[in-house]
Amino acid sequence: MFTQSASNTPSARQKNRAYTAGIAAGVEDEKYQAKYKELKRKVKEIELDNDKLHFKVLTAKKSIQRMRLERA
């Protein structure tokens, strides 16, 4: 009833090539996910360091203000 012409069916070589491309894309995906996780971890670490430094600056500013008031 339904017959496909030879030009419409992909050859085994084309199927294999498509499968290989799919595997390569998966490997690239994993590589990008690992890189994303590493960068996310670094960003969190930098944000924590930034918060600590911000707190130190605020403490120093308060101390300076207090000393200025004591001197006046």
Task: Briefly summarize what is shown.
The protein is mainly alpha-helical and 72 residues long. It has one helix at residues 12-71. The protein has a domain at 44-71.
What does this protein look like?
It contains 1 helix and no strands. By secondary structure, it is mainly alpha-helical. The protein has a domain at 44-71. Keywords: Coiled coil, Nucleus.
Question: What structural class results from the helix and strand content?
Answer: mainly alpha
> Distance N terminus to C terminus?
102 Å
SSE pattern, N- to C-terminal = H
Low-confidence stretches: none
Rg result: 31 Å
Please count the helical segments: 1
Sheet-strand content, in percent, reads under 5%
Count of individual beta strands: 0
Biggest pleated-sheet summary = none
What overall geometry do the principal axes of the alpha carbons give? rod-shaped
**Level of helix content?**
over 70%
Mean pLDDT level: 83
Could you list some keywords that capture this structure?
72 residues, mainly alpha, 1 helix, 0% strand, rod-shaped
Question: What does the secondary structure layout of this molecule look like, with pairings?
Answer:
Blueprint: H1 12-71
